[in-house]
């Protein structure tokens, strides 16, 4: 430590950046003592009261401190859901400011990796648990979905997603993300107008939908066949058999991808645990 807090209580394995700070902590507890020994390697303090004998010994770390020691100093600053010392550079600054030690970037990197490996385990061990984890996750999710009749999942047009949904959630509605759909259509139809397309998909009834579709066809004559092959029910509100309201994009999942950047470095099962913790916290708050 680099300063003494008012609530600080001296205990074994405490670390101090200087000798004077160590003695200041002893003064704080109103101990009466003499300095028996003090050099670059060690300081020993001893009580001067006959009926209350005690001694304190503080040993200095060599400047070439090992990454194992660094690991012990930073392990309480790193957790599964996130950590204050996110980079080796942060660790170098922390060790210098809090403990008065100078370490290399390489040692900070090794210490960081060692702590993270202790917390998250190995990717191999995580993959051994994936079937059990997936079974629990799927059972819980399936029970929640079975209790609701109007669940709709929105995704892009990737074939593997569609096949997985047919197996895992056969009774759940499925819609195409309009952002991905429009992006793909523009690769083929360069002159498509965004506002006309969105008016078509947002129409509340079939009469309005047909009117907006005629306007869309007037600017892009061959687009109707393309959209029919996809299925109007997959992307339009008017033809959808479920209540999709105005949720027709994957914006929520894209936002999760953004906030999960650090968690994506974790082994698969721990990443899913972080995702669960994040969603539980968001829904609770």
UniProtKB/TrEMBL annotation:
Domain of life according to the entry: Eukaryota
Domain MULE transposase: 126-184
Family matches, as InterPro entries: MULE_transposase_dom
A Pfam family that the UniProt record links to this protein: MULE
PANTHER family: POLYPROTEIN, PUTATIVE-RELATED (PTHR31973), PROTEIN FAR1-RELATED SEQUENCE 5-LIKE (PTHR31973:SF113)
Descriptive protein name: Protein FAR1-RELATED SEQUENCE 3-like
Lineage: Eukaryota, Viridiplantae, Streptophyta, Embryophyta, Tracheophyta
């Amino acid at each position: 430590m680099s300063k003494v807090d008012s609530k600080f209580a001296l205990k074994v394995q405490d670390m101090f950046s200087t000798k004077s700070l160590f003695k200041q902590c002893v003064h704080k507890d109103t101990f009466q003592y003499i300095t028996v020994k003090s050099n670059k390697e060690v300081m020993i303090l001893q009580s001067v009261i006959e009926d209350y004998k005690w001694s304190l010994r503080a040993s200095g770390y060599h400047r070439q401190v090992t990454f194992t020691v660094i690991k012990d100093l930073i392990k309480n600053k790193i957790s599964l859901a996130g950590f204050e010392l996110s980079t080796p550079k942060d660790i170098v600054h922390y060790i210098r400011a809090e403990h008065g030690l100078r370490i290399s970037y390489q040692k900070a990197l090794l210490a960081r990796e060692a702590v993270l490996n202790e917390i998250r385990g190995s990717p191999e061990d995580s993959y051994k648990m994936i079937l059990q984890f997936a079974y629990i996750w799927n059972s819980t999710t399936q029970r929640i979905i079975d209790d609701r009749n109007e669940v709709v999942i929105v995704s892009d047009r990737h074939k593997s997603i569609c096949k997985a949904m047919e197996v895992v959630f056969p009774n759940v509605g499925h819609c195409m993300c309009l952002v991905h759909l429009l992006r793909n259509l523009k690769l083929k139809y360069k002159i498509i107008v965004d506002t006309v397309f969105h008016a078509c998909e947002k129409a509340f009834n079939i009469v309005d939908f047909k009117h907006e579709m005629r306007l869309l066809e007037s600017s892009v004559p061959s687009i109707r066949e393309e959209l029919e092959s996809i299925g109007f029910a997959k992307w339009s509100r008017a033809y959808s058999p479920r209540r999709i309201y105005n949720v027709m994009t994957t914006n929520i999942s894209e936002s999760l991808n953004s906030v999960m950047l650090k968690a994506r470095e974790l082994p698969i099962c721990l990443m899913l645990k972080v995702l669960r913790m994040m969603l539980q916290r968001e829904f609770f708050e």
